[in-house]
Write a structure and sequence with these properties.
Order of helices and strands: EEEEEEEEEEE
Low-confidence stretches: none
Strand content: over 45%
Number of helices: 0
Largest sheet: 7 strands, mixed
Shape: globular
Distance between the termini: 40 Å
Length: 116
């Protein structure tokens, strides 16, 4: 049984920062690609950032230079540092684990609201 638990969301003014955390239970973390997705009201869920088991990262164009994804394998945790936040970053942010393309898991989501 794998569980992903996000934390760190909240309300912040434009230009501010937040750090999201996703703690994973189970033994798959080290071998998994970990991603952050987000879904704004009325929009499709979109990939924000990802990090492979080897540490390679990728970002959506809309967040490049502002967001940083990282992972701590000793703590089974992936982070998303979000700087220079904009109102259009407002969404529910979801943690996602892709275990060797065999299984995938989702967290329950955490709300991020950026006020103008």
């Amino acid at each position: 049984q794998v569980q992903l638990v996000e934390s760190g969301g909240g309300l912040v003014q434009a230009g501010g920062s937040l750090r999201l955390s996703c703690a994973a239970s189970g033994r798959i973390f080290r071998a998994s690609t970990m991603d952050w997705y987000r879904q704004a009201p009325g929009k499709q869920r979109e990939l924000v950032a990802g990090i492979t088991s080897g540490g390679s990262t990728n970002y959506a164009d809309s967040v490049k230079g502002r967001f940083t994804i990282s992972r701590d394998n000793a703590k089974n945790t992936v982070y998303l540092q979000m700087n220079s936040l904009k109102p259009e970053d407002t969404a529910v942010y979801y943690c996602h684990a892709d275990f060797l393309r065999l299984n995938e898991y989702w967290g329950q989501g955490t709300q991020v609201t950026v006020s103008s």
